[in-house]
Specification:
The protein is α/β, with parallel strands linked by helices. Helices cover 40% and strands 19% of the residues. It has a five-stranded parallel beta sheet with strand order 1-5-4-2-3.
Length: 102
């Protein structure tokens, strides 16, 4: 697992890169604010219900939550399940919103 800053993520998105962004928060959190990533709550990941992202196994996956704690756990779990290129978004959606001025 590696880390990615919100600044680096924004640069890559602004450059038009197609990225796999995984949001591991709960549905109500996703409804309040999201960056358009796929919602797959941490509990779902921990119970190995990964069919939605099975095709991403060999791709880079940028994982985020509210502040970076759950996404760190998700990255560790995904790596145990064979996903080799996980990146944890430092500061999570809170840092993203701050960068966006929201």
């Amino acid at each position: 697992m590696e880390l990615i800053s919100v600044q680096e993520l924004k640069q890559r998105l602004d450059a038009g890169e197609s990225l796999h962004i995984l949001d591991v928060r709960e549905p109500h959190e996703y409804q309040e604010a999201n960056m358009g990533g796929l919602l797959l709550p941490l509990g779902t990941i921990m119970s190995m219900q990964l069919d939605e992202i099975e095709d991403w196994k060999n791709d880079e996956i940028i994982v985020h939550c509210r502040s970076g704690v759950r996404s760190l756990q998700a990255c560790a779990a995904l790596e145990q399940f064979g996903f080799g290129k996980t990146r944890n978004l430092t500061g999570g959606i809170l840092a993203w919103q701050e960068l966006q001025g929201k």
